[in-house]
Amino acid sequence: MRYMESEISRICDGNVPQTTEVLGCLLSAVQSFRTGFDLKCLKSNLELRYDDLRRLGAGGFLNDEVMNYFLQKWSAKSAVLAMNTFFTTRFLFKDSRIHIVKSHFDASATKSIAGWIRKRIETLKLRARWRHVFIPIHNAEKSHWYSATIDFVNRRIAVWDSWEATHSQNQCKPLRSQQHVPILLAVMWVAELIAQVRGESLVLANNPTSEWDFEPHAKTNFQVNGADCGVHVLWHLKRLIEADAVDAVLGDIETL
Amino acid sequence: MSEEDQHSTQPEIKDEDANAPINVKVVSSTGDEVFFKIKRSTKLSKLQGAYAAKVGKDVGSIRFLYDGSRISETDTPASLDMEDNDTIDVMVEQVGGCH
After folding, report:
1. The pTM is what?
2. Complex ipTM
3. Any idea where the Ubiquitin-like protease family profile domain is (chain A) (predicted)?
């Protein structure tokens, strides 16, 4: 297997402009003798299939399979509890097709969320003193990925969106009418629930003395095209895992 | 039968027939519910196929989750430790790039 990897690297390095084509041929070849192949991670049910891998090419839109694969692979055994892409769709939005945040949450949702969180902590085998929560968010109406983070040490909740226009247009608006305030409020509620799972007590709603910082439009790198928001969201996670903050170093985006 | 009696007899019923069918509720992301009765040893992939056929969707375009975790081809209610009346969430594929 290692020999195969170095051989593929050698071929691709020698023909950089044809890299996409070479890897595409390789994937087609794999596809031709097997209907699907699994990239197992943590002995869990994660798998990527040929159709998902095709999305990794330049200009491809990432789907939930690719996002969830990296969310789980990278946050495993880290200090970051990364939820999967269905978490917000399932619990925080009124309908999977319409991007409107719920304004209230019933008791059965609270119970289900606690179940998802416990299961996720168990699956990821997080470090004992994990400090962050990473929440990927999917906007089905606009086919857009963005994210939210909860930092239990620095007491900070932030929403990260790589779409520059959304950031700039909301800078001059009063806080109440900023676009990501509803999702921020929902994440504040999630933070209270997760604090309970952590055995801590946290009240953020109607509590001006909480000493937490809230940023509905935190500054991060912007995508330079109309395709890379999924990659940016994964990059937010990578920063969080490696540098303890999404905006720790605002450098150029690294190639994944 | 009082409530206490029911509690005390329930575990026995389970032990008697570990393979007794259980009711599973499949809930879509728009809130629609479909009920299935399946044996604890039956692969959930069967249920997934039946559900997809019922709602007229390609099984590859929808995701089945139990407690937020993807259900794999080989999972059964027994392997997932599912209980009677548990819920499986069905989510649709998500794609994002922006505009």
Report:
1. 0.82
2. 0.78
3. 46-240
